[in-house]
Structures are given as C-alpha cells and as structure tokens.
Amino acid sequence: MKRQFYIGADIGGTHMRTALVDQRGSIIEYQKALTDISRGAEQASRRLTEQCHRLMAKSEELSGTVRSIGLGVAGKIDPLQGRVIFSPNLPEMRNYPIAIELQEQTQVPVFMENDANAFGLGELWLGAGREIGNWIGVTLGTGVGGCLVLGGKLWNGDHLGFSGEIGHMIIDSKGPVCACGMNGCLEAHASGSALVKGASENLAASLLENSRFPQPSHTDNLEPEDVYQEALRGNPATIKLFERMGWALGLAIGNLFTFLGIRCAIIGGGVSESWDLFIEPLRRSLVDHCCMLEESSMIVKKSQLGDKAALFGAAWLARNEMIQR
Amino acid sequence: MKRQFYIGADIGGTHMRTALVDQRGSIIEYQKALTDISRGAEQASRRLTEQCHRLMAKSEELSGTVRSIGLGVAGKIDPLQGRVIFSPNLPEMRNYPIAIELQEQTQVPVFMENDANAFGLGELWLGAGREIGNWIGVTLGTGVGGCLVLGGKLWNGDHLGFSGEIGHMIIDSKGPVCACGMNGCLEAHASGSALVKGASENLAASLLENSRFPQPSHTDNLEPEDVYQEALRGNPATIKLFERMGWALGLAIGNLFTFLGIRCAIIGGGVSESWDLFIEPLRRSLVDHCCMLEESSMIVKKSQLGDKAALFGAAWLARNEMIQR
C-alpha cells in the first residue's frame, strides 16, 4: 500500500500556506506565498491549485498518494457547497467555489473549514489544546478569528457556516469601524489591520514625530510588524495600540468565560507574536471584566503551532473526513 | 407503591416560589412568598423549610411521597457543597449552606442549581425550548440571569459553579455600575433593578414631572411594574429605559449568536412581562450588532412557563437526579 499523505492549506487575508502532511501530523513539505487577493479570486485559486499539484508531485516522489485536501479559509463558508459566502478580509472570494474548483483541478477530495476553526483543529490535534476539554481559540492576523472547543471537539453551532467568530463580537458599540461594516468589533481593536490603521492615524496626527515609520504618504505599506517594532522602540502612542488590543481581547474573552462557565483561551495567528506587548493589558482586562473567576484560575496560553496551526488543522480535517467515510 | 412527587423551589432576589410537582410535570400545589433576604439567610432558609414541610404534608394527604427537592438559587453556587458561593442579588446568602440545611430539616435529598439554569431546565422540559437543540436563555428579574442549552442539554461549562451568566457580560465598559461591582454589565442595563434605578434618576432629574410615580423621597419602593406602567402611559424618559434594555439585550444576544454560531434565544423572568416595550428595540439591536445572520433567521422567543419556569426546572433536576442514581 502506498504511503498516505494529506494536504493542508490555509488561505488567510495576507498569506497562503500549503503543506504535505503525513498521518501523524509531520510536515513533509511546506510552502508559503502571498494570497494577493486584490488580483482576484480566480488568480488566487489558480496559485493554490499549482501549489497543491507541486505537493502531489512530491508525494509521488516518495511513492505516496495524497488522499485528500483540507482547506482553511478566512470568512463565513459553506462547507457543503465548497464556497466562501463572504469574507471581510478576502472580499473578492465572495461566493467563489474555491473547494469545488480545487477538487476538479486535482481530482482529490477537498474539505473546507473557516481558517480560525482550522486553527482550533490544529491546536487540538498537536498543540496547546491537546489536553484541555473546553477552550476559546483566538487568531490574530489581518483580521481576528476565533473558534470554540467544547468537550474536546470543535463546536460548529447550528451549522450555519460560522462559529467562534470572536472578531465580530462588539466590544464597544461606539468604537472604531470594522471591515464588516459594524462599529466596535474586537477585530477593529485587536487585529493587524487595527494596529496599522491606528499607527497611520497617529502619524496623521503627528504623534509619531520621532518614529522610524515612513512618512504619512507612504503608510499604505505599513505592516503590523512595523508597528510592533515601533512600540518596542518605546513610542508611547504605539504602545497604547497594543494596550487597547489587550484590553479588547480581555473584555471579549472575559465575557465568554462568564457566559460559557469556562476558563481557558488559546491565542495564535501571526500578530500574536507581539505577545509581550499585549498580554499584560489582556490579563488586567480579564480581571477587570470577569467577576465570576479569580485571576489565578483564568488560563490564557499562546498557540504552540505558531503560523502553521491552521495548516495542521486543515490537514487533520482532510484526514478525519476520509476516516469517517 | 406510593405516588412519587418532587418539590421544585425557586429562590430569586425578590420572590421564593415552591411547588409540589408530579412525574410528568403537573403542579399539584403552588406557593409564593417574598424572599426578604434583608432579614438574613437563616430566616429565609427557615421559611423555605416551612414551605417544603407544607408540601410534604400535602403529598401525604394524596398518599404520596416527596422523593427529592430541587432548588434554583440566584448566584454562583457550589452544587456539591450545597451552598451559595456569592450572589449579587442575595448577598446575605453568601457561603450559606442552604441545600444542606434543607436536607437536614426535611430528610429528603436536595439538589441545587443556579436559578437561571433551572429556568433553562424548565423551558427545556415543558416550555419554549423543547424542540430546539441550541439556545440561549435569559431571565429578566431583579437581576439578569442566563443559561445555555447545547445539543438539547443544559451546558455546565467546566463545572466551576456558574455558566450562562449573560447578566455579567459587559455591554458598555463605560456604562452604569452593576450590583457585582463592575461597570456596564447587561444586568445594569436590562434588569428590574436597572429600570427602577433609571426611573429614580429620572425623577431626581425631574424628567418625570407629570408622572404618577411617588415623589423622589419615596422612590425606595418603586417596582419594575411601576416603571412599566409609567412607560405605557407614554412617558418618554421611561420609554427610553426599555429601549436601552432592548438595545443591551440585542447586543449581548447578538454577540453570543456570532460567537456560538447559533440563532435562537428564549427570554423569561418577571420583567419579561414588559415584552411589548423592549422587543422591537431588541430586534433592531440584534440586526445592528450581529453581522453573521440575516434578520429573518434570528429567533427570539418568550418563555412559555412564565414565572414558574425555574420552579419546573428545579423539579426536573430533583427528578432527574433520582433517576440517574
């Protein structure tokens, strides 16, 4: 019998990651590229197909076969129709049947999940969530995603195409406008986009006069990483952006602890690399905003799989769906 | 064999309700009294014991026996120790071993739940939640309680002594102070206490000059019902209190729909009798604050068991615990 492989793919607002993964969750080959969704969903889909074909060739080199592909995509998705219903951070992907397309091009079964749910499946399989029954997952990237694990399983709610969307919980209804059109979502306080937007506004207001940021006219290219570096250099206005981020995360997580009667959260995604700047404000905010739990009993952990969590989760999904059959 | 009965008891911030209930959920005898917690936990506990003895006597008249007692109590509770850990609306009950006390006095097994969870068990057994898999329960009384039903079962989280505490989710961190000590909880916007406090403040600010409310010096005795009647008479400042209540409920429920990926809520408790004044603002707020669902797919229903829901739920708990043994 040929060696059995799976492909995990994570299509985020900024990056597209794909990997060939074996049964036990070891990565055989890993690829990362820009999603570059502004060039259209079809282009992005074509690049995804190319990447999968490359991984399939690799699996043949190893005398193996790719049994199935798992896809984690940012946004509200329809797993049965294999399409993205809508996605604030991948607007061009709206209604695009990306999973169907990929299945036709590769002739391999494709399964689909929201990218933050895929993050949850990854951390549950191989990461920080392995031994915890109930936890809230948060992914900090271009946007803010989330998931909910109950009884050691990913919670899918009423199967409406979304669940765990912590990024669109409203933290402050008079707060900044979000990519989804509402005001004051967690995402508008705690995402990479929110950091960049906040820093740009600071620049416009000349709060960063001695910063190493590019001039106001060039802020289109600012990255969350630039904002992080600026805060590390001690710029107070930029540090405040991370404090706001921690405050908002603590409020959202605290509210969910209060309602769900649970006490553990796992935070990942690229922007969680700024952990040292937001974790203390987050913990203070949790204490201030959750009256049901003592500080010592609340657990907030960092993802163990880093930027590969959703990739592993997508591979797990692919594997699990084949086992279920 | 003797007829099998159960006692359900609901100890709220204002009223104490007890009933003798048969296997199928019919009420044989019902009693209602003031909780009057300001006279102390011991006094309240003594009255509860008296009420239970009266119901036990009734069951004997009917040649039956009371197999067990279920207790729904407002606050964070420790079901194993049979005590209230703390309760913003029954502060005197803190650490009082009310279930142990009752069990000793009656020599009947006593089981305990938070009152809003008991509400959920009642609506799940005989009310509006019977045929819905996943829903959020909200009880509007002196405070705001809540519960979560997942897969047709009451969700108990990590068994920390609380779950479904929607009343202490923070809606507006700069909002009014709550009985729990935090600012801007749902309870501080949408409870009977919040209505009374709001109306008293309006009185003090002379916004209710033509109202039939008592004079400012007598507002200690204001009841939510008075505030409701005043709003029905068309007083704009009072109508605004119910609009704020609907707004806050819609925001909290919308946030939970977004995170849980579910779409149904059931609202009960004494103050839900003001339904006609808050339901439209609530629905508008839901639409404004939940970007994941269409208006038509969100369901908000009124409790079917009215002020007896928690009583039925407590009786169900008593019955179920005996069946489990």
* Secondary-structure element order of chain A, N to C: EEEHEEEHEHEEEHHHHEHEH
**CATH classification, class level of the largest domain in chain A:** Alpha Beta
| Low-confidence runs of chain A | none
**Distance linking N and C termini of chain A:** 19 Å
Q: How many β-strand stretches of chain A? A: 12
Structural class of chain A: alpha/beta
Overview of this structure, please?
With 325 residues, chain A is an alpha/beta fold. Chain A folds into two domains: 3-122 and 307-324, ATPase, nucleotide binding domain (Nucleotidyltransferase, domain 5); 131-303, 2-Layer Sandwich (Nucleotidyltransferase, domain 5), CATH 3.30.420. Helices cover 38% and strands 22% of the residues of chain A. Chain A contains nine helices and twelve strands. Chain A has helices at residues 41-61, 98-106, 115-126, 187-190, 192-204, 224-232, 236-260, 275-289, 309-324, and strands spanning 3-11, 15-22, 27-34, 64-73, 76-78, 83-86, 110-114, 135-140, 144-150, 153-154, 264-268, 299-302. In chain A, the strands form three sheets. The first copy, chain A, has a five-stranded mixed beta sheet. Chain A has a five-stranded mixed beta sheet with strand order 10-9-8-11-12, with helices on both faces. The first copy, chain A, has a two-stranded antiparallel sheet with strand order 5-6. In chain A, a hairpin with a 3-residue loop joins strand 8 (135-140) and strand 9 (144-150). In chain A, helix 1 (41-61) runs parallel beside helix 2, helix 3 (115-126) packs across helix 9 (309-324) and helix 7 (236-260) crosses helix 8. The longest helix of chain A is centred in the last third of the chain and has 25 residues, at 236-260. Chain A is globular and about 60 Å long. The two termini of chain A are 19 Å apart. The A-B interface holds A 76, 133-134, 146, 148, 150, 155-160, 162-166, 168-170, 172-173, 180-182, 251, 254-256, 258-264, 288-289, 291-293, 297 and B 76, 133-134, 146, 148, 150, 155-160, 162-166, 168-170, 172-173, 180-182, 251, 254-256, 258-263, 288-289, 291-293, 297.
